[in-house]
Amino acid sequence: MSESTEDFKNHTRRTLFIFASVLCGTFLMVGASFAPLRNPHMNLVLVLVAACCNAFIVAGFLMHLFSERKMIYTMLGFTAFFTVMLFALTWIAEHDVPQVLVR
Fold it and tell me: Which one of 11, 22, 23, 103 has the minimum C-beta count within 10 Å?
Protein backbone atom coordinates (compact mmCIF):
# COMPACT_ATOMS: atom_id res chain seq x y z
CA MET A 1 0.00 0.00 0.00
CA SER A 2 2.90 2.37 0.65
CA GLU A 3 4.08 2.09 -2.97
CA SER A 4 0.68 3.28 -4.13
CA THR A 5 0.81 6.22 -1.73
CA GLU A 6 4.32 7.13 -2.86
CA ASP A 7 3.29 6.92 -6.52
CA PHE A 8 0.35 9.20 -5.84
CA LYS A 9 2.57 11.70 -4.01
CA ASN A 10 5.09 11.70 -6.85
CA HIS A 11 2.35 12.15 -9.44
CA THR A 12 0.80 14.98 -7.42
CA ARG A 13 4.16 16.69 -6.99
CA ARG A 14 4.86 16.39 -10.73
CA THR A 15 1.41 17.76 -11.63
CA LEU A 16 1.84 20.73 -9.29
CA PHE A 17 5.27 21.45 -10.78
CA ILE A 18 3.77 21.41 -14.30
CA PHE A 19 0.94 23.70 -13.16
CA ALA A 20 3.42 26.11 -11.59
CA SER A 21 5.58 26.19 -14.70
CA VAL A 22 2.59 26.85 -16.99
CA LEU A 23 1.40 29.58 -14.61
CA CYS A 24 4.87 31.19 -14.60
CA GLY A 25 4.97 31.02 -18.39
CA THR A 26 1.60 32.75 -18.58
CA PHE A 27 2.75 35.49 -16.20
CA LEU A 28 5.92 35.85 -18.28
CA MET A 29 3.83 36.31 -21.44
CA VAL A 30 1.65 38.97 -19.84
CA GLY A 31 4.66 40.75 -18.37
CA ALA A 32 6.54 40.66 -21.66
CA SER A 33 3.59 42.15 -23.50
CA PHE A 34 3.56 45.18 -21.17
CA ALA A 35 7.35 45.54 -20.85
CA PRO A 36 8.59 49.00 -21.88
CA LEU A 37 11.23 48.02 -24.44
CA ARG A 38 12.77 50.33 -27.05
CA ASN A 39 11.81 48.03 -29.90
CA PRO A 40 8.14 46.98 -29.79
CA HIS A 41 8.95 43.91 -31.87
CA MET A 42 11.00 42.56 -28.98
CA ASN A 43 7.80 42.36 -26.91
CA LEU A 44 6.31 40.14 -29.59
CA VAL A 45 9.43 37.95 -29.69
CA LEU A 46 9.40 37.52 -25.90
CA VAL A 47 5.71 36.65 -25.86
CA LEU A 48 6.16 34.10 -28.65
CA VAL A 49 9.13 32.47 -26.92
CA ALA A 50 7.15 32.16 -23.69
CA ALA A 51 4.14 30.81 -25.61
CA CYS A 52 6.31 28.18 -27.31
CA CYS A 53 7.67 27.07 -23.94
CA ASN A 54 4.13 26.86 -22.56
CA ALA A 55 2.96 24.87 -25.58
CA PHE A 56 5.92 22.49 -25.21
CA ILE A 57 5.07 21.86 -21.56
CA VAL A 58 1.35 21.41 -22.21
CA ALA A 59 1.81 19.13 -25.22
CA GLY A 60 4.57 17.09 -23.67
CA PHE A 61 3.26 16.50 -20.19
CA LEU A 62 -0.46 17.17 -20.11
CA MET A 63 -1.18 15.52 -23.48
CA HIS A 64 1.24 12.64 -22.63
CA LEU A 65 3.27 13.03 -25.82
CA PHE A 66 6.53 12.24 -24.01
CA SER A 67 5.33 8.87 -22.73
CA GLU A 68 3.61 7.59 -25.87
CA ARG A 69 6.38 7.94 -28.44
CA LYS A 70 5.57 4.81 -30.48
CA MET A 71 1.97 5.81 -31.10
CA ILE A 72 2.94 9.42 -31.86
CA TYR A 73 5.57 8.37 -34.42
CA THR A 74 3.10 5.91 -36.00
CA MET A 75 0.47 8.62 -36.39
CA LEU A 76 3.09 11.05 -37.69
CA GLY A 77 4.20 8.47 -40.26
CA PHE A 78 0.64 7.90 -41.49
CA THR A 79 0.09 11.65 -41.71
CA ALA A 80 3.28 12.18 -43.69
CA PHE A 81 2.48 9.28 -46.03
CA PHE A 82 -1.03 10.49 -46.82
CA THR A 83 0.13 14.08 -47.23
CA VAL A 84 2.74 13.01 -49.78
CA MET A 85 0.12 10.89 -51.56
CA LEU A 86 -2.29 13.84 -51.76
CA PHE A 87 0.46 16.05 -53.17
CA ALA A 88 1.29 13.33 -55.72
CA LEU A 89 -2.37 13.00 -56.75
CA THR A 90 -2.60 16.75 -57.20
CA TRP A 91 0.55 16.79 -59.31
CA ILE A 92 -0.68 13.88 -61.45
CA ALA A 93 -4.15 15.41 -61.87
CA GLU A 94 -2.59 18.63 -63.12
CA HIS A 95 -1.70 16.89 -66.38
CA ASP A 96 -5.04 15.09 -66.70
CA VAL A 97 -6.88 17.75 -68.68
CA PRO A 98 -9.22 16.86 -71.56
CA GLN A 99 -8.11 18.05 -74.97
CA VAL A 100 -10.31 20.62 -76.70
CA LEU A 101 -11.37 19.72 -80.24
CA VAL A 102 -10.53 22.45 -82.71
CA ARG A 103 -12.35 22.50 -86.10
Answer: 103
